[in-house]
Amino acid sequence: xxxxxxxxxxxxxxxxxxxxxxxxxxxxxxxxxxxxxxxxxxxxxxxxxxxxxxxxxxxxxxxxxxxxxxxxxxxxxxxxxxxxxxxxxxxxxxxxxxxxxxxxxxxxxxxxxxxxxxxxxxxxxxxxxxxxxxxxxxxxxxxxxxxxxxxxxxxxxxxxxxxxxxxxxxxxxxxxxxxxxxxxxxxxxxxxx
Length: 193
Hints:
It is a single chain. The chain is of the alpha/beta class. It is built from 5 helices and 7 strands. A 7-stranded parallel beta sheet has the order 3-2-1-4-5-6-7, with helices on both faces. It is globular and about 45 Å long. The chain starts with a strand and ends in a 5-residue tail after the last strand. The model has no long low-confidence stretch (mean pLDDT 91).
């Protein structure tokens, strides 16, 4: 059974991913709050290191956490998880890293430029290591969804029209099963009603 480690997996989309992966994987979640439903650790993403990954031995690492109230700290945490995951998998010479980014990582966002800048930074770092990752049999998958119907977006007038987190989580699980091709980046848009 493959092992999955989800950084930012104790609430929102990360928790939804954890529930979907749990059906066929051994799942560990990490976040700022305790999650009794899963094997997990409570810590900040900036505290995750190669040593944490060596302890849990994941085959798939999902880099999901982000707090819109703390842009700089969240951006640094996302970079830390990506860097630590990459270094961990280099020693194993195999693995999958999934970065849950945002459409704001591809396009400017005049409503929230700090968030967009943080997501552009994550994209830039991931793109900078992709060549070396590919040569070492490490898959890096970058997800760019528009807004997801989770607590982070509660209160939006269009909340009911946002991306369904359950459906997106199912798609992410399916992406990890590909054997004959490599997925590097996927953009998810919502259906106009």
